[in-house]
Hints:
Oligomer: single chain
Largest sheet: none
Structural class: mainly alpha
Radius of gyration: 41 Å
Distance between the termini: 123 Å
Number of helices: 2
Strand content: under 5%
Mean pLDDT: 92
Amino acid sequence: MNELQLILDKLQDMSSDIKELKTDVAELKTDVAELKTDVKEIKVRLEKVETRQEAIFEQTAGLIEFRQTTEKTLAQILDQQVTLVHIVGEHEVYIRTLQRRIV
Length: 103
């Protein structure tokens, strides 16, 4: 009888351990579900960041092109101005510039 009692005690201990394991597994499942939700949220946020980054790249490319065009145009204008100063004469350009400033 004594041996049966020992076996019964062991079985009860094992049953208790199994219940604890089930509780632990349930907690782990809950944690994993929360992690999955967090990962989904992070993916959504990452997609938004990537979309914004693509828009920034496109805008930057447009701005670089605009800057290059503006620099080229400015260089042409400066070159033409030098030519005009030579044609009209430096003194005439300075006189007209001074006249505009007085008004």
